[in-house]
Amino acid sequence: MEENFPEILKNSPLLKNMFDNATINGMQVMDTDGYILHVNEAFQHAFGYTSEDLHGKHCRVLFTQEDQKMLLPEMEIERVKQHGSAVDRNYLIHKDRSCVWASGESLLTEENGKTFIIKIVQNIHEQKVLEKFLKESQEFSENVVASINDGLIVLDTNFKILKLNNAFYNLFEINQQTIEGLHLSELNHSFLSSGKLKQQLENIIETGSFNSFQFDWKKDEDLYKTLNIKASFIDGKMVDKKVLLLVTDITDRVQAEQHRDDMISFVVHELRNPLANISLCNTLLEQAVNEGDKEGAEELLEKTRLNTARLQSLIAELYDATKAGSGNMQFSKSFFNFGEMVQQAIDAVQLANESHNIYKQGEANVDVYADSNRLHQVLTNYLVNAIKYSSQANKINVKLSMESGNIIVAITDYGKGISPEKIPYVFDRYYRADASVKIEGLGLGLFLCKQIIDAHNGRVWIESKLNEGSTFYFSIPL
Ligand code: ADP
Question: Is 362 left (phi over 0), alpha (psi -120 to 50) or beta?
Answer without folding.
Answer: left
